[in-house]
Backbone:
């Protein structure tokens, strides 16, 4: 009998959403293999893989094109993301949050993946005066308009709720304040509510064809 389950490639499997996504894919009956492209070896206890679906591959993100064969899958998920503070400069931030993700989309297109889903941000707008939101918006515009890229979709979460390996004090304070006033986030403001990483991961899976 032909196995009709899907294959997936996850880029950015060690981040907050990435970990949640990989674990959901490993538990998902519709997937038979989950390849994770990472900077360093995965920590085994972070991932529950009873069926042996997980295939981590340590790569050099500066040479993403050298790993295009790993994009020969049904679905590509990109969870890459950093902050200007962590990256060290605006140019370094853009390198990760625009260039790396854009290359991933190009590789997904070249290898004819059925779908490409990545993480953007609520408020993303290429015309924004906020550098972070401007980069996110420019990336959205560039990927969505990319010819011959099937089923490209972005999730736009607000502040993410969950345990991070690297603390982000300012973000944590923002989450606490937003949670205190969450009852006020209704109607058009609902999209600004803090959202659990697991919920974002689940939405990413639903966006795939």
Residues:
């Amino acid at each position: 009998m032909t196995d009709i389950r899907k294959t997936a490639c996850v880029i950015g499997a060690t981040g907050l959403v990435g970990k949640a996504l990989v674990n959901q894919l490993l538990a998902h009956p519709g997937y038979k293999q989950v390849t994770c492209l990472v900077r360093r070896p995965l920590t085994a206890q972070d991932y529950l893989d009873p069926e042996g679906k997980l295939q981590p591959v340590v790569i050099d993100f500066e040479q993403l094109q050298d790993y295009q064969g790993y994009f020969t899958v049904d679905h590509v998920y990109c969870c890459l993301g950093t902050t200007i503070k962590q990256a060290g400069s605006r140019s370094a931030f853009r390198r990760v949050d625009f260039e790396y993700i854009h290359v991933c989309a190009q590789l997904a297109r070249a290898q004819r993946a059925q779908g490409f889903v990545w993480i953007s941000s609520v408020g993303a707008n290429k015309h924004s005066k906020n550098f972070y939101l401007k980069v996110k918006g420019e990336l959205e515009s560039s990927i969505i308009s990319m010819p011959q890229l099937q089923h490209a979709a972005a999730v736009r979460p607000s502040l993410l709720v969950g345990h991070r390996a690297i603390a982000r004090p300012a973000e944590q304070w923002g989450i606490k304040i937003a949670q205190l006033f969450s009852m006020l986030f209704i109607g058009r403001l609902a999209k600004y509510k803090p959202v659990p990483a697991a919920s974002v991961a689940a939405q990413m899976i639903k966006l795939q064809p």
The domain at 6-160+196-207 is CATH 3.40.50.720 (Rossmann fold). Residues 39 and 58 are 5 Å apart (CA to CA).
